[in-house]
Fold this protein.
Amino acid sequence: MTLAIVLAAGAPAASLPTGGGESLVDGLAGQWRRAGVSEVRVAADLDELAELAGRAGGPVVVSGADLVAHTAVLRHLVTSPVGPTVALVLTDRPTGGRTVLREERGQVVEAGRSEQLDGAATGVFGGAVRVGRDDVPALAAAARAVAAGRAAGVPGPLVDQVFASLTGQGALVFAHRVRLLVAHRVDDAAGLAGAEAAVAAVDEDRAELRLSVKEKDDFFTTFFVSTWSPYVTKACARLGLSPTVVTMLSVAFAVAAAALFAAGGRPSLVAGAVLLYLGFVLDCVDGQVARYTRDFSAWGGWLDTMADRAKEYLVYGGLGWGATAAGFRYGWALAIAAMTLQTVRHMTDAWYGVLHDEAARRPRNVGGGTGGGIGDRLNAASTRVQADAGSVSYWLKRTVVFPIGERWALIAVAAALFDQRVALIAVLTWGVSALAYTGALRTLRARWMWVPVLDTVDATLHRDDGPLATRLPVLRRPGPLVLAVVAALGAAALLLAAVLAGAVGPGGDGAGEAAAPLRWAVPVALLVLLGAATGAGAAHNGPLDWLVPAALRAAEYLFAIAVGLIGGAPAWLVFGYVFVLALHHYDLVARLEKRQPAPPLHPATLGWEGRSVLLTLAAIAGIVSIGLATLGIYLLALFVASVVLAWVVRPARAAPMPVGTGGHAKL
């Protein structure tokens, strides 16, 4: 239930007649209703605004009575999935004392008068803000504060002052920029007539379809998918296909491509490449359908993230199977390596994003960082490149990091022209280069940001610590990152020893007997691994501690792979176990990104250290294959049960859907 409040006070144009014959304030109220809000109220003053907000039981939209815009602009603000509190942002020249703002990474980090921002403004407040339920008390407090300030003669429109006060109270506000559609704030009849003419000159539906495509995407997606995917998006919308249905169709295409890659033979490889490309197109279309129809849901966002990773790793599995069947000894090993590398890369991507977002909303050089250093210069250079959209440097930066479009394109081309082995080697080569490039630059930039990012979230949850880690003594030195890196290096050393001892048999399976003496090295490696668990209770406030989750993922995966080789487990079983681990960890990351709570059954997953202890016991007992299969099935069952509890059972109990309604619960 969303309440829209139109603040008529402080807007001289509120009573002007529109082209439809009604006043601007009445016309705007009608537009908010058509935009999907549950109730619209017109507030005569700030006291009434504060009172209405205080009684609201859900999100509140506040707008001035000087806004002229397409109804789609208002609908996009109401349904925006970027965050609970979202402000309309324009690129107009600020007039009439309107609030300017500075944004970074889509977040409004400063708002006030032009002289206050000292030339650092990136936009103008568009006169409307959707306030999330948790921020509504801050909105009421902001209205009361502005009312007191107004009595002292503070200049500027009232809605702008309320917005500036809201941001000043620490509310996290995201920016919704108007693109292709029209939104203007007017002061007089001439401005109103011009704004209405600009609105009438734009085909609203056509603009919305174009807006369904991301404004900035990667090279392959931009030039080889987005040029024609809107036609597919339009067809899906006309057929009534939801984003979730399109996501599942994309999964089906990827599974078929993986099966063809596993089958091998030139016709199958070419057909698999084509299906992989079409599956990626549908992967883009599901988001476009969501944006075009405004059918957003937390479930849909989570499913899209999880489906992307599952599809990609199933394709790796198909390539590994096919390469092995074609006689290449290390086909499965390449697939396991590609999956492990990509998961660790994604963990660094996710946590660097959290770090960057947190840094953007904090004062410059927070925590002792020094401005003007190499990290500061790299950050400024990156900002300039990102702003120069379409330049060679821009596309090189977008491509070198090896995003999903480039990965799928490389796999398709390499498999169609060569074979599965070449495709996997190409993915690994480019992936390692991308990890080295982004890792080096982000490390330097992170030292400039100096934000204790893991102190802002549940470090135990996102480290994936289990009951053992929480009970071990805490080592506050040398720090959690050093301990995690040492654990990863110890697991890597065990894996290298297994490979050198001849633990990889024909077809990439564990040889078992050749590496039997290493069975007793597993407990030693486990002790090194458990060293990282002693850092669980330490403060994660170092400038590079955002790397801890990725280092722990690398440590656990490498350890499990090494145990599988030493214990003679089939390579496909090792792949399957790491695949299930990846699903579990992506679930945590997806919930972090979608602002969802921990999985319902997370404590039962035992933690990375508990699972490693069980695999060590299996290695000592000589039943590694049984251990991997049993633990993998157990984790998969927990994952499925958590999905059902989180997305089916709990939402149904919390807010039962009325009879006759359907679709996703909107954010």
Summary: The CA atoms of residues 34 and 425 lie 53 Å apart.
